[in-house]
Specification:
The complex is a heterodimer of chains A (324) and B (509).
Chain A: H1 2-23, H2 25-54, H3 62-80, H4 83-107, H5 112-129, E1 143-145, H6 155-159, E2 161-163, H7 164-182, H8 184-194, H9 196-201, H10 206-232, H11 244-254, H12 259-281, H13 289-307
Antiparallel strand pairs in A: 1-2
Helix pairs in contact in A: 1-2, 2-7, 2-10, 2-11, 2-12, 3-4, 3-5, 3-10, 3-11, 4-5, 4-10, 7-8, 7-12, 11-12, 11-13, 12-13
Chain B: E1 7-18, E2 21-32, E3 36-40, H1 47-54, E4 62-67, E5 70-72, H2 77-82, E6 85-88, H3 100-105, E7 111-112, E8 115-116, H4 118-131, H5 147-160, E9 165-169, H6 177-192, E10 196-201, H7 204-210, E11 213-218, E12 221-226, H8 233-241, E13 259-269, E14 275-285, E15 289-293, H9 300-307, E16 317-320, E17 323-324, H10 330-335, E18 338-341, H11 345-349, H12 356-360, E19 371-372, E20 375-376, H13 378-391, H14 408-421, E21 426-430, H15 438-454, E22 457-462, H16 465-471, E23 474-479, E24 482-488, H17 494-501
Helix pairs in contact in B: 14-15
The chains are: A mainly alpha (324), B alpha/beta (509).
Chain lengths: 324, 509
């Protein structure tokens, strides 16, 4: 049922975009491009959520993992003078934060919500405390224009003329889908998230599987953080992530724990934000910017209210695995 | 005769301790190839612990396991599987949202590089199912399958891993009599093809029907080895319990009186809103036991909850002793003289962290007898508790001990004592002897009969057909939310009830 109206919504939106493109190609292209860029950290963070929850671990600490990585990525790049090194430091930090969650939620069998909350508080505190002004990035992140494909009207400039992070986000969603549903790793990961005792009796190491999945997912959160600091904002400030880690969890649910679904949901989120900003810029509607900036959060609440209870989460999510 | 064959598996002096308990003490056993070994014992006798050691889920504290003559140390199920041990768990270890094929291959997937080779997997699983005569659709989602079929998937999982020692942990607990017979046939087939089977059960009938050798466990120790030809049900029961046990219930003919419970056209939904009870009508008279037979999940649970006020329902009439009980709260229903032994005593019948005494007055702690001006009269509570502990043979260090530290049988006696102490006009007992040792079963049965002889109406719901047959004066068979037939218990045909339970319409013979 939910899949059906998801398709309907996707078609409706696509048709609307095409109509607007016919009316005003430049503006439409720029709105849609903005939307995709806005969606990049949401896509990556939603993949973190999917990877963790499909393994049976709730990751409410995505926000903190991103924030910490954005911090480390920014100062890493500023101090080393290399955006690449900064990105790698961001990803590495994300993995360390992932391993922290895994240690708490998997190894120590803590309450998973508490383990994630600890990460959020820790990240907010550390990044505020060590924050220093006066640093700048060594440059701007490179973009990659894919020849031929980029010349397609509308689709070309939106999807094939982007910063590297944008490609990474789209590829990560497609890749995660293939991994989850077509590979041995995916089958085992899903079994661990649905019925870990069945995995255990089939000879699959539940704890090991969960630990590494959560840790590696942390790397994706690191990539999202690095994007925010190195490309989107071009700087670091306190509370840079602005709740995107939580929005991503809503997107994960809206996408039914499916990477492709979450990819679409994230782009939909981006679109609403893009359209609202444009309407405001054009002075079509006269609403204070605070209300426009509220939009993603309001939308999160509305969508969750609609969707929750209709989509089934992985059955074992949130429960540490105990033999027997 | 089997001793001339090879020994497939041998356990020598296995001991396993858990904090505060010795689950297995110096247990040894031997299974030959192609032999069916029945592991018999009460709940808590250590059967599951024993096979979990053999399957690598627990590591023994002492003793050794030999597979095909070779001493092994199993570090996990993976080791056990590699050595040809397969296990069909009591609680199925299947992923509900996966297909049959996905479940079977999980952990040992045919693959090309990192990718699962689903085509090969499906073909392989279909071939195996056919080879062993287990009919299955490999693409069906496991959650959509009936329990008996899910069990076949479990068995297939073991066979797929080339198990030649198959452990079945209480495999018939969830099956209808027909499914049980089918399963026993399948197991005999395995043994015939050289597979060794360890069959765990507490049902004597099955043991006698299928086992080559019987190993009896009691209190974590192996108390004897025998064969079906050397013993009978009474002998086995005595070995299990350690004293002679009355297997059949002794009861006088019912002296029935007025209708106590009258239900007309009751319907109720299950937890997710689907119809679970459909237009059920029944009457129970004073002094009789109406037993409801049926495979679990056919609406019995919802029916009991509806009658006790725990679940909303629709009905033309629900009266207890002529008083309207429809839509009343559980407390109001209780006050009308209805005692309720819930099927899940831990969740619905007891407060585990409370003492035995407090649990015994759970339904009347605020009565004037036990409290004045909101202050409890603990002396009165304690006096009542002493009395009931003695009367109902509750084995507890004291009445102040928490209920959660008692055994299953004694917990159930606490529930029964509380519900019967008030001498209810109607007793609704759901699965009254589930997870209870044989000795306590005997006692609980005698108490239910005593309540009937006192003039109480009893509605008994049980998934154990033998219990329904043994206790009831009349039997109603429930299938798919309906009562498909009601019959006098005397002369009731076991096979026919089994068919009715499985949903076969049976014509009068």
């Amino acid at each position: 049922m939910s899949a059906k109206w998801a398709y309907a919504l996707a078609i409706l939106i696509s048709v609307t975009i095409v109509i607007f493109y016919v009316l005003d190609p430049t503006k439409t292209t720029s709105v849609v491009s903005f939307s995709l860029r806005y969606a990049v950290p949401l896509i990556l963070a939603a993949m973190v959520g999917i990877m963790c929850e499909r393994s049976g671990v709730i990751n409410i600490g995505i926000e903190g993992q991103m924030l910490m990585s954005a911090f480390a990525g920014f100062f890493g790049a500023a101090l080393t003078g290399s955006l690449l090194l900064g990105t790698m430091i961001g990803v590495g930090t994300g993995m360390i934060m992932g391993a922290m969650l895994a240690t708490g939620a998997v190894t120590w069998k803590m309450d998973q919500i508490i383990a994630g909350t600890i990460i959020n508080i820790l990240a907010a505190g550390l990044t505020s405390f060590f924050y220093a002004q006066g640093f700048t990035l060594p440059g701007i992140t490179p973009t990659l224009r894919i020849p031929v494909l980029a010349d397609i009207p509308l689709i070309g400039p939106v999807f094939f003329d982007n910063g590297l992070f944008t490609y990474a986000a789209i590829v990560s969603a497609l890749l995660l889908w293939v991994l989850l549903f077509k590979t041995v790793w995916g089958l085992r990961t899903r079994s661990v998230g649905e019925k870990p005792s069945a995995s255990d009796t089939s000879g699959i190491g539940v704890q090991k599987m969960r630990f590494w999945n959560v840790t590696i997912a942390g790397g994706l959160a690191g990539l999202a953080g690095a994007y925010l600091a190195l490309e989107a904002a071009g700087t670091f400030e306190r509370g840079l992530t602005a709740g995107r880690g939580f929005t991503a969890l809503a997107i994960m649910i809206f996408g039914a724990w499916n990477p492709i679904g979450a990819l679409a949901a994230a782009i939909f989120f981006g679109l609403t934000q893009g359209v609202a900003s444009q309407l405001q810029t054009d002075a079509v509607v006269d609403i204070p910017p605070q209300f426009v900036n509220m939009l993603p959060y309001v939308l999160t609440i509305v969508l969750l209210a609609i969707v929750s209870g209709r989509i089934k989460p992985p059955a074992a999510v949130g429960r540490p695995y105990e033999k027997d | 005769m089997t001793s001339t064959r090879d020994v497939a598996l041998e356990a020598r002096g296995l001991t396993k301790r858990f904090p505060g308990v010795v689950a297995n003490a110096d247990v040894s056993l031997k299974v030959h190839s192609g032999e069916i070994l029945a592991l018999l014992g009460e709940n808590g006798a250590g059967k599951s612990t024993l096979v979990k050691m053999i399957y690598g889920l627990y590591e023994p504290d002492e003793g050794e396991i030999l597979i095909k003559g070779e001493a092994v140390r199993l570090k996990g199920p993976r080791d056990a599987i590699r050595r040809g041990i397969g296990m069909v768990h009591q609680h199925f270890q299947l992923v509900p949202v996966f297909t049959v094929a996905e479940n079977v291959i999980l952990g040992d997937e045919p693959h090309r590089g990192p990718f699962v080779n689903m085509r090969k997997a499906r073909a392989e699983v279909a071939r195996l199912a056919e080879e062993f005569g287990l009919q299955l659709d490999v693409d069906a989602k496991v959650e959509d399958l009936p329990v008996g079929t899910q069990q076949r998937v479990e068995i297939l999982k073991a066979l797929y891993r080339k198990a030649d020692i198959l452990i079945l942990d209480e495999p018939t607990a969830v099956l209808t009599p027909q499914e049980t017979d089918d399963l026993l046939g399948v197991i005999k087939g395995f043994a015939g093809s050289g597979v060794s089977v360890i069959f765990i059960t507490h049902k004597l009938r099955e043991v006698l029907a299928i086992a080559d050798t019987i190993e009896v466990l009691r209190g974590g120790r192996a108390v004897g080895t025998t064969t079906p030809s050397e013993t009978d049900a009474a002998g086995l029961a005595q070995m299990m319990v350690g004293r002679s046990v009355l297997l059949t219930v002794d009861k006088s003919p019912a002296q029935t009186g007025d209708v106590v419970l009258d239900v007309v056209d009751l319907s109720a939904a299950d937890d997710i809103g689907l119809p679970a009870v459909r237009d059920v009508s029944l009457q129970v008279r004073a002094g009789e036991i109406l037993g409801i037979a049926g495979v679990e999940g056919n609406g019995q649970r919802e029916l009991v909850q509806a009658l006790t006020g725990l679940r909303p329902c629709r009905a033309r009439t629900v009266t207890v002793q002529g008083q309207d009980a429809l839509g009343k709260s559980p407390r109001a229903v209780h006050a009308m003289g209805v005692g309720h032994v819930p099927e899940d005593r831990e969740a619905d019948g007891l407060v585990g962290a409370y003492s035995v005494a407090d649990n015994l007055v759970l339904d009347r702690y605020s009565d004037p007898e036990f409290a004045r001006f909101g202050v409890r009269d603990l002396k009165a509570v304690s006096a009542l508790a002493q009395d009931l502990v003695g009367q109902f043979d509750i084995r507890t260090p004291s009445a102040d001990t928490t209920v959660q530290s008692l055994s299953g049988g004694n917990k159930q006696k606490v529930v029964i004592a509380r519900e019967l102490a008030a001498e209810p006009a109607l007793l609704i007992a759901a699965q009254p002897t589930r997870g209870v040792d044989v000795g306590s079963i005997e006692f609980i049965h005698s108490r239910i009969i005593a309540a009937r002889d006192r003039g109480a109406a009893v509605l008994l719901v049980s998934a154990e057909l033998d219990e329904v047959l043994g206790l009831s004066d009349r039997i109603a068979v429930m299938y798919d939310g309906r009562i498909v037939e009601t019959m006098p218990a005397e002369g009731a045909d076991r096979a026919r009830i089994g068919l009715l339970m499985a949903g076969h319409a049976v014509s009068e013979t």
